[in-house]
Amino acid sequence: MKRWLSHLTIIVYLAALSWGICSHTLRVGTGAHPVMYFLVWDMFCGWSAWNTKSHIIGEGASGKFYELAPPPWGELHPFGSLDRHDYDPSSIFSARLAVNCLKHTDHEPIVRVFVVEENWPKKFNLSDDLWALRYGGPKDIQRYYRVRHVLTGDGQLMQTYATWLEYQASVCVANNPRLRAETRKGAPLFALGAQQSHVNPYSAGPRFGFAPASPLPASGPTGRAHGN
Amino acid sequence: MRPAADRPTPDTLPDRLRRFFYADEVPYGLALVRLLMPLVLLYPMLPRWMHCREYYSTDGANTPLWIQYGYAHMLPEVSGSVAVALYTLMLLCLVTSAAGFLTRVSLVGAFVLYTYFNLLDSVGTMTKYSVIASHVLLLLSLSQCGSVWSLDAWLSGRWRRRRAWPGEAPVEWPRSPAWPRRLMQLLLGFVYFGAAVTKMHTPAFFSGDQMRYWTIANINFKNPLGEYVSLYPSAIVAACYVALVWEVLFLFLAWQGLGRRLMLTLGVMFHVGTFLTLGLRVFPMLSMVIYFAFLNEADVRSWAAFFRRRLRRWGLRPAWPKQSAAISDMLRLPRPAVFGLLALLAMFLGPALEHRLDPYGERRPEGPYALREMDPARALTMLAPSRPIRVEDKIFSFDVGTLTVGGNLARRKSEFRTGESLIVEIMMSPPYEDMWVECILADDDNRRVDGIGQSVVTREMARGHFCYTVPPSLDPGRYWLVLSCAGKEVDRRPITVSSARRQAPLAN
User: Fold this and answer.
1) Residue A194 has pLDDT above 70, yes or no
2) pTM surpassing 0.95?
3) Chain B: nearest CA to A220, how far in angstroms?
4) Is the peptide bond before A70 cis (omega within 30 degrees of 0)?
């Protein structure tokens, strides 16, 4: 009986590991279930040339802005020098983090919460001496911001936007008069579905937010300009 | 010719599999993994105790992994005090696992609670190293790793017989089938193989670009050596290929003889390299601890003999602690009762201490914390529409040299002779649109002397190269390589041109 149980354990365990490798290699069902996270070994997920940080900002009824992350009671840097909320690149949990901070602090009524992404070229991360050795001259860092989500004061999602990198990639694709003209010709009169905005860089959908040829107004989350 | 009956029967596949998985052995390797793995896990988990209400409970901002997979409620989410109690119990289980006290129960508890808490915080706790740790804790809990070098073994009196150095007969350590150790070895092989597949899916890995970006990222701990290595992209490309080949071969070669030594040595170098250049800490420690699963009995005996000789040479005699009267009294207590008592104590004291420490600061005399106000100008800058990317930010580097390796400029140089060829490299920072780039040679007064090259760098190219031969007619002196995009100067590099060396006459 014990031997059969060990046979079964070995077979099931190796089958699970093998399924993880097959699934990962052939890209089948890798996101089907959380268990797949335990079987797919995708440790090298790709690294861009840009450094990203995120900010969670609360806007009070008085018009003042408050920093909601890291929380005022202190934060652990879980894997290095960044705060916990910086390891949520898709900002899936920003609402929870914001609401928890608001729940345990003293503050005026908060009317809106913004989740903002901050980006800068990674080359500026080099230490000053290596920078001087490699590039010479002073570091002239330009930081690029983009609002990812707008939430109500109690954490309800109102607007969501693509990441800064996705947005910039869509801008690169959209910067093409021929493609722009063809897209304009091919654009349906009526919206076909929510997924349309993911494939059409000219759509007014908030996923891309770049709408040079869009028949619909596309505004930034603060309502002031096109293409946040 | 030997009669057929005397000939050894050839090994069949089932025989080999049986020997591979079910050979009886003293689980020295797994005992070492059991001793060290919980200590490695305590390094990241202990500091999180103070934040466990915030990270893992409904009284905080837990970030369950299952939500990312589209499952709303896969496992129960517990209240703050329960989370603190269970987290403290997990820490106790890790300690008792390392000590080998009620080993199997401790390991099962550590496996269940460690996995649960990792699942509850996909942002600040769970990583691939914690997944590997969960696998290892599961496999250890299925093994007999507590029968060697553990409190359990000591309390049951095994160490009282004789000195217990491996190899010193007649200590009879219990033997058990090898399959948990084999599964742990296979796990590591699968992990490396899967990591190799990921790299195969990522073309930018082979140009070294992504590793270069990683070495200068600040997402992990400080890695000053990584920043330095990023200056040598060709070395990174070479290391990428070595790492990939090693990751693929590990599963097939890491079993015996030269292959095992080579794979494990490369593995240690790889993980130390990730610590030094990428700022990883727990992952390298954890992986190298699992390497102890590759030790067999003979290895441990020879190591033990080596250390015994060393100790004798230094005049030291290892002596295991003898059981005192107090220990003898303790032996009479049933271990499950002691463990249960410790667990209850931990689950009571943990929340009590956490309540006293008041992690949210809500019971401070001055009341809860106030929100930090932001500079309104800064906030409005953040909320304004994104600015277009500056052209200079689309260029990662602009270099000149004479040799490329793996598509990267390997030898940077700034002094050239007339007639010598130079290579100008422009490395881009994606994303960028198709760009018109031009490089010219200018003198100190910024007058154009010659064109080096002009081209469209398309968005998938990542880098562009111009080759140029310094004309013999060029006067020696200092010049500038000037890079322009869409008519705007982006960067410039100085070079010095000297006359070509005259050939000495071979003979009169």
Assistant:
1) no
2) no
3) 6
4) yes
